[in-house]
Structures are given as structure tokens and as C-alpha cells.
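Single Protein Entry

Contents — chain, fold
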Amino acid sequence: MSLRKLPLWARSAINSEQNDQTTTSTDMHDCTKKLIVETPLWARSAINSKQNDQTTTSTDEPPKKRLRSNYAFPTEEKKEPNVQIEYLPLIDYTGVIEYYTTLPDMAFCCDQLMEMVVQQSSTTDQDIPIAFDLEWPVSFKTGPGRTALMQLCATPDRCILLQVSCLKRLPAALLELLYHPRVVLHGVNIKNDFHKLARDFPEVDADRLIARYVDLSQWYNQLNGFTVRWSLARLVEKVLKQRICKDKRVRMSQWNVLPLSAEQKLYAAIDVYIGQELYLNLAEKQRQQENVDNHIPEEGDAAVDLKNVHQQTADVAQETLSNCNNNPKL
């Protein structure tokens, strides 16, 4: 709305407000000018130079943003190269798989293993390793079921599968084999398997089995100075450069339903077969490390060897001198 259309009292109020603003700005300008005039010369030059520096800095560089106190600049993380697992060969087991479902057959098989253990015990002082593993059905509604299958492997070319789900008690020959003082049961994370077996079969003493078992993952960590928690599949990939086919359809199958399928038998046999291969590989590596540690010569041995060298050198010199004296042409 223009001033012409405003009433007289409104136009006079606007004019008086504008005059007051003009007077105020003029007074402030006069005060500032008076302050600058009254300021000493050395102070006015310092103020002018500071204003010039600020103007130059503001025009040359962009304004800096204030960073948070907990801000950290991103650093490049070193990532380990990913191992192409799909290029590793699958484990191909071609040995014998013995599958027993009755108590007499299991007892007879365990008696044969005991004979082998006794025979080896008489010929060697080393422990007798036997790969050990268990399988049981798992239901998402009821949880883990009763132990269904026990796998044993004493030699890489023979795997034994015992269908214990159809038994009320384990055969005495099997317990005698597991408790034998020269037998070393081994596997990866099988300590819980011993407790599981003891819960399902009260005649089993889990503490007695745990006292002499060997965890392959812990053994590998001790030999290499690692603290990694290994699974059987990862340990096989690391040590043997092979790959286990962990088919979930077979792994989560009904292990208590008789008879087992060919896929189930092969899956169960490979678990203990590859465990036995791992044990033999780690035992050989430990033997090599012990040989290297024991091969360090002692000071006494070095002195004896140096004395022998000096004696051999003196004998050669004496023989040469005698030949020269006996030769008339020299």
C-alpha cells in the first residue's frame, strides 16, 4: 500500500520512525569516527593491519570446519587375501566302510580292534590313535535326539560305523576299547561328544575319556603358535589343502532311521577318515620340530669334533713327511 492511500496519522508515524533510524545511524557513525580519531596512531595502524590480514585470509582460504573431538580419519585396513575354497579338491574316500546295527556284530568288531591294539602295543611304545565322532538327529521342536551313530577309524583305509541308537547299553568290548590306556581318541571339538554320550548311556564315564583325548584344533595351535578356534572343515582346508562336502541335507538328516543311506554312510566315514589323516600329519610335523630342536650341537661335542679334525690333520702331515724322507729322489 502506497503512502498516498494511508491516512495522515499513519504517514506521519512512518516518517518519524524513518527519521529516528537515520538519526541513530548518523550518531553511531559519528561516534565511530570520533573513536577512530581519538585512537593513537600506533593503535590505528595495528587495527588496520589486523583487518587487512583477516580480509586477505578470508579471501585466500575457504573457512575451516570444526571437527568433532572423537573424529578419526579413516585408515586403510590390510585385508588378507581370500582363499578360494572352491578350487580345493573334494575329499575322495575309497576305503572300506563297515556298518553294524546289532549288538553281537558290534562286539565282534570291537574285539578285532582290541586285538590290533594289543599287537601294536607289544611292538611300539607310541600311543595308538583312533578317530572318534558321533552323530544324532536334531529337531527344531524337540532339540537334539539320542546318540544314533558312533564312528571310529584306526587306519585310513577302514572306517567303522556303529548304529548305537538301537541299543539300550553299549557293548562291554566297545567300552574296553575306548578305555584302553594306549588308545588315544581324537577329533575336533569332541569334548562335548563325550558328555553327550555319557548322558545317553549312563555306563560311559565321560571324565575318563576326556582325560586321554586329543583335540586336533588345539594341537595345531600349539604347533604353530595360534589361538584360533577351528572347525573340522577349516582345519582340513588349512592343513591338508582339501575340502569336505558339508551337505546340510545330509548333516541334518535322521541318523536314527535304519538303515542309513549311502550318502549318510560316506558322510560319517569321511569325518573320521580325515580326522585320522589330520592326526598323522600333525604327528609328523611335531616329530620334525623335535628333530630340529634336538639337532643343536653342544659345546662339548664341538670341542670333540675340533680335536678330531686337528688329529687327522697331524696324521696327514706326519705321513707326508715320512714319505719325503723315504724317497731318495727328494
In short: The radius of gyration is 45 Å.
